[in-house]
Amino acid sequence: MSLPEEASTPLPVIEEFEAAGALVGILIGSESDRESMDPAIEELNDRGISYELRVLSAHRDPRGVAEYASTAALRGVRVIIAAAGMAAALPGTAAAYTDLPVIGVPLTSSKSALGGLDAILAIVQMPPGVPVACVSLDGARNAAILAAKILAQGGGYPGTPGRPTAQL
Ligand code: RP5
Q: Which of 111, 114, 117, 138 has most ligand 1 atoms within 8 Å of CB, for mutation?
């Protein structure tokens, strides 16, 4: 039995999602972080994994981070990699607005008072209920490999009942 014509016509909104389709969303806190993430991009390219990159600061543009993170899953993103230096609130802020897994990359910065330890502590010390994975200092490549491993676990994406994400 064939479907009625209207039932077999893809909805424009679904086509748009399929066209957008990046599986990994990379967030960086500043343009000055871009170069540090080159190894992640290289790794994702080598593996044929689609990604998108946005410069969004948790402190300078918190609304932008909230908007990105809260719509990422709807747009097809399945893992977020968030990299920042100094008071690196970006991974945690992204995690507050999404149930997608968030991988934090602490970055060294010439402005850091503690050579990157500040960013490590900011990312590692998330409060209970809002997990963020944390790779090594400047561990962009590891973040991409971890993202690939998460994606390899299958297409299903279970929700997390009991923890509402922050609202815009
Ligand atoms: C962090 O502050 C950024 O992630 C960056 O690593 C650091 C310095 O940022 P800029 O002052 O260079 O923009 O938020």
A: 111
Q: How far is the CA of 109 from the centre of ligand 1 (A)?
A: 7
What distance lies between CA 136 and its chain's CA centroid? 16
pTM of the model: 0.85
Residue 81: phi and psi, rounded to 5, are -105, 125
Q: What is the pLDDT along the chain (168 residues), one digit of tens a residue?
A: 454 555 555 545 445 454 558 999 999 999 999 999 999 999 999 999 999 999 999 999 999 999 999 999 999 999 999 999 999 999 999 999 999 999 999 999 889 989 999 999 999 999 999 999 999 999 999 999 999 999 999 755 445 555 557 777
C-alpha 29 to ligand 1 mean position (Å)? 6
DSSP H or E run through 134: strand 133-134
